[in-house]
Design goal:
With 104 residues, the protein is α+β, with helices and mostly antiparallel strands. The protein has three helices and four strands. The chain is 21% helix and 12% strand.
């Protein structure tokens, strides 16, 4: 299970990018920063990243195994501030598992 591991490795998880379509939102980004993100990856209402169901379209790989971010250098602030093992990380892992997501 993603919430019951000792080492928090983002590249072996990805739960924060795949538990809620509301998570990868824009908050403090400037227009110039948003312009660095491909338009096809931005939600129709321009509020954040486009998601396929709950999964951010920039997430690559298999959640709980091997993941990455295809726009890592330009990812939204909310993604930059999520720290492995912090409260947001634990919340994302728990929510992902409650949605029937993959276990680690």
């Amino acid at each position: 299970m993603l919430t019951h591991i000792d080492v928090f490795d983002c590249q072996a998880c990805g739960a924060c990018c795949s538990f809620s379509a509301d998570w990868p939102r824009f908050s403090t980004e400037t227009e110039a920063e948003i312009d660095n993100i491909p338009a096809s990856m931005i939600s129709k209402n321009l509020s954040g990243m486009r998601c396929n169901e709950a999964r951010c379209c920039a997430l690559t790989g298999v959640v709980g195994q091997n993941t990455g971010c295809s726009i890592y250098r330009h990812r939204p602030a909310v993604c930059r501030t999520c720290v492995p093992g912090d409260a947001e990380c634990i919340l994302a892992r728990s929510a992902f598992e409650n949605l029937g997501g993959a276990s680690h």
